[in-house]
Amino acid sequence: MQGGDGDVSFDKNSFGAAAAIASSEQMLTSAIHSMELTQGVHIQIANLGIGDGGHTFSMVDTVVEVLRRKLAVINGGTEPEFEVYFSDLRLSNRFFSSFRPLEDRVNDWGKKYYTYGTSLPFYMRLFPKGELHVVVTTSALQWLSLIPRKVMEKGSKTWNKGRAWIQGAEREVVEAYAEQSHKDLVEFLKCRKEEIVVGGMLFMLMAGRPSGLESQVSDDSRLKLIFTTLMDQAWQDLVDEGSIEEDRRDAFNIPLYLRNTEEVTAAIESCGGFKIEKMELLKIADPMNARQQEFIKDPDSYGRAMANLVQAAQIKRKVEAYLGPDLTNTFYERYAVRAANNKEFLTKNSFYSMIAVSAIRVWY
Q1: Is residue 169 predicted with pLDDT exceeding 50?
Q2: What pLDDT is attached to residue 320?
Q3: Which neighbouring-strand residues pair with 351?
Q4: Mean pLDDT for the chain?
Q5: How far apart are the C-alpha atoms of 236 and 8, rounded to whole Å?
Q6: Alpha helices in the chain (DSSP H)
Q7: 214-253 pLDDT tens trace
Q8: Rounded to whole angstroms, how far apart are CA atoms 100 and 254?
Q9: What are phi and psi of 133, to 5 degrees?
């Protein structure tokens, strides 16, 4: 995701993630209360897949405060000390900029917890065995560790020609993504199984899709527009202008897969060692719905908002690494123009689907 404070930063475009975190807070709180903790004065927490800015810390603040109250009773009033570790899918400038708000928070409220960062990706072991009491991850696990190798085989049934994502792609392409998604989630869970103490808690919040929906997104999701229609049109503009060849366009793929609850359950059961306390599909109203009239009056502002939104996700860094900075700027200019001329989601409300899961670490 894009770091920094500019118009395309994650912090200024993460209103969907913020809404999902707010919607799942009660579930997170209940999960913490369900933990069977004995006396503890040294609690270790990990936030894996951090977002830039305040959203990174709001969920951690909730975890720390609920645990503080819970342990104050267990410990007979003794205040525990908290250590919080942060990691991301990949090392980037966004990872380092995520720590900037900490100074202000410490000045405002006093030091609530000690913070550390690890630059290693969360699809691998990060901590010693039985080290962590709580692990939270938000809006990160939908991103794959890599593009499935099958999808990069030109001319094969899994070659995703003419598309940047898998919405509307051939069945073989979607299956390759689903296979990689399962592998990634199982690996993530196996690592956390080793690191979380028995009785500890794992809380996952990830973009998902409703059960029974074969496509990645429903018709009322703006993601269909963001990652499919506008993305493919902008790539085609570069091809038509002679800036890139078709093969170069076809070789770019977005490593994003939206699981349903059955796929998440299958990965947890395959891993073992976790008991699902609760799993819920959340339907989050798109905050951009409230700006429809504004965007209808000023389509160019809508185009810029959509281009900023897609850049704030993992996408800008991937496009820039693929095309270079100059052509990337051209790409997003074309994207903004295409968005400004698309009225599909200016006359109806849009929603995001998120899967929230709380699981307790158990012996088996």
Answers
A1: yes
A2: 93
A3: 285
A4: 87
A5: 23
A6: 10-13, 15-34, 54-74, 93-97, 101-109, 171-195, 223-224, 230-240, 246-250, 261-271, 292-297, 299-310, 316-323, 325-340
A7: 999 999 998 888 999 999 999 999 999 999 999 999 999 9
A8: 29
A9: -100, -35
The answer to pTM > 0.85 is yes
Spell out the domains of the chain, with CATH numbers in brackets: 10-216+254-286+351-361 (3.40.50.150)
Q: Is the pLDDT of residue 79 over 90?
A: no
Residue 104, pLDDT > 80, answer: no
DSSP string, 110-169: ---SEEEEEEEETTS--S-TT-EEEEEEES-TTB-SS--GGGGSTTSTT--TT-SSSTT-
pLDDT at residue number 192: 98
Element at 229 (helix H, strand E): none
Q: Residue holding tokens 């898998």?
A: 166
Per-residue pLDDT averaged across 62-85, rounded?
88
Contact, 256 vs 310, CB < 8 A? no
